[in-house]
Every structure is written in C-alpha cells, then in structure tokens.
Amino acid sequence: MTRRPVIGITAYVEPAGWAVWRDVPATLVPQAYVRSVTAAGGRAVVLPPDDTDADVLELLDGLLLAGGADVGPERYGQPPDPRTEARPERDAGELAVLTAALAADLPVLGVCRGMQLLAVAYGGTLHQHLPDVVGHDGHRPAPGVYGSHPVRFTAGSLAGDVMAGVDRVNSYHHQAVADPGGLVVTGRADDQVVEAVEDPARRFVLGVQWHPENEADPRPVTALVRAAMSHGSQPAGPRPRPARPRPPVTTG
Fold it and tell me: Is 211 assigned a catalytic role?
C-alpha cells in the first residue's frame, strides 16, 4: 500500500483563545494551509518551532514554510525597524529544518514570510517596511484585508510553469525581498516587488510572496505535493535516513 506524501507545515506560536480560554500561547496554523495540502493529495503535519535538531525530516516528503510574523533583521545584518515584529524562536527553528531540507533536496515551498526566510537562508536581505520603498499600502491595504495586484512570471521558470495563465495574486505583507541572495527572481508585481523566487539547481525550491492557500486554485501548494510524491510513493514502514551533505546556504 502506498501512502500520501507527508508535508510539514511550520507553525505559529501566538496567544490564542478558544472555549473559556483566552490569550493562551498556542502552536497553530491557519486551516487553509492544511486544507490546501489535503486537497492536493498530501498529509499535513504541523511543525512547532524547535531548533534542537532536524530529525523530523526523516518523516517528511516536503516542507511548507508558512506565513506569519517578520523574520528577525539580525538574520540578514540589519538593525530592526520599529515596525518589525520578529519571532526569534520561530526563526531559529525554521532555519534549522530548512537548512537540513535543502541539504536533503526535499521539496520546499515558502509562502509570504516563508519566501522571505528562504531568501535570508540563501544570503539575501529584506525590505523591512515595504510602503517606504513603493510609496503605497497596496500590498497590505488594512489589518486583516487582502489586496490584489497584477503579477508576471519568467517564462520557462518553475514559477512560470506552475502559474501559467495567472496574472493576478492576492497580497498581505509589509515586508518583501530586497536581495534574493543565491535564489533567482522569477515573479514580480507591477510595482517591481519580488513575488516569486526559486533555486533552479534543486528539484523543487519555490518561494511565493502571496498566499496561495487562500486562493480557489492553490497551484504552488499542489505543485509542492506533486513534487513530494516521489518520496511519498514508497510503501509504508521504516524509511531510510536522508543524506545530509553540507547545504550551500547561510542562516545568519
């Protein structure tokens, strides 16, 4: 019997409320991520921040770096802007598992913050407050309100193939990739903000600035699950440990 590919989704740790409980620190991800992975044929597993080791990769076929709070600017050599809201524990845990995933050539998708973390892992930098760069708030119109804008992708790229025929995406972010480091920019908004990055030397490493899990057609998530199927198609049971060569990335 074959099994569904297992996709690890990195999680938020934020104060949350349910039933009679209020402001309880909780490990969580929006259900949209889980739903989109399941709909694509994968099994979603939530990964709390944990920088002790990356042994969880032995159980995964793909990694989805979810959105959320800002990446700490010390990770890319900048002082913090007053409007930057970082989560150091999450940065440490995600960079540990991302570095090992890249070394093992595991399929990786970065969404919003996840794309920015990919760029930082590859030696890049971020704009800490995008309105200062582009002169408008269109990428995050209001708290809890998604924007929408035109986008174009590089023909023949992974992003271009995955998003063929798509010319608009949603938007909710106040930071963006300034320098992609060792990644290649393959998508931009109409105001030149980086919308997609990838590593053509690897099997599947893609970052997208928008939130595909909230789209009716979440193509990047579907593409991640399909890329992971070569891992997940083996019979159920014990699995060999992945090779761990030295990764060509930096983690700050």
Answer: yes
